[in-house]
Amino acid sequence: MEEIRLQYPALEIIQVSKSYGIIPALSNFTLVVSTGEIHGLIGPNGAGKTTALKIVVGLLRADQGMIRVFGRDIAADPYGYKAQIGYVPEAPTLPDFLTGEEFLGSIARIRGMTSELAKQRVRELLAEYELADRSYFTIASYSKGMKQKLAICAALVHRPPLLLIDEPMVGMDPAGQHKFKDLLRKAAEAGAAILLSTHMLDTAERLCSRVTVLHRGRNLATANLDELRQKAKAGADASLEEVFMKLIEEASQPEPPPTWPVKRRFGRF
Asked: CA end-to-end span of the chain, whole Å?
């Protein structure tokens, strides 16, 4: 399995399209995330970021296109590939009637971990995210930030080689955000691939080795910050926010009307 992970990109989204009725969410969207990379996915509200992530994890079905995880078409094995993925949704829905420890333990068992290994891993995560003192409280008593931390723990419990993360730091306190960003860096250094969808452009600028700008369901650009600056014709010191705004503004301009050739008829226009 390790050789396969090194041989192929962690994630390939190839010419994927998805519409909700007559409204297109993704249009021939292509993106590649490599092993050991933190890849940022940025775009305005409604650009298609969450739709793209949900298609990868199987919560939505694409109208056309292909998804490959470590070289394997997910349509050929719609369940097995999920063992390689950890997913943090933008608004996680957690079972309020369970305690934090019970919830993570159930996720660990679903992921195929032995009882002893599951207990050890759950203790590690609860301590790391400063939830150990609330591990025996029901999730209903958790704050929004605590629930977000617990959702992150659930995504990490089996140490997946591919992480898909949708706005993970909403409602999280500064200390939790710092810890989470440090965890992402360490995971990438250890060889994990991370696709991070976020509106926090300063975070994406500091964390991500490459960024994809998604606008109206289309990939405007995939590059590192220096290359994005060149594409946007921005200054050498332009921030990702400045580059992003220039690219989106340019892409939002209406296309000029077509110029049709003028034909003469019987010597007149």
From this structure: 70
- 89 phi and psi, to 5 degrees? -75, 165
pTM above 0.85, yes or no: yes
What are the residue boundaries of the structural domains of the chain, listed by start? 33-252
**Per-residue model confidence as pLDDT tens digits over 170-219:** 767 788 788 888 889 999 999 999 999 998 898 899 999 999 999 999 99
The answer to whether the beta carbons of residues 209 and 37 sit under 8 Å apart is yes
Average pLDDT, the chain: 88
33-252 placed in CATH 3.40.50.300: yes
From CA 52, how far away is CA 18, in angstroms rounded?
Answer: 9
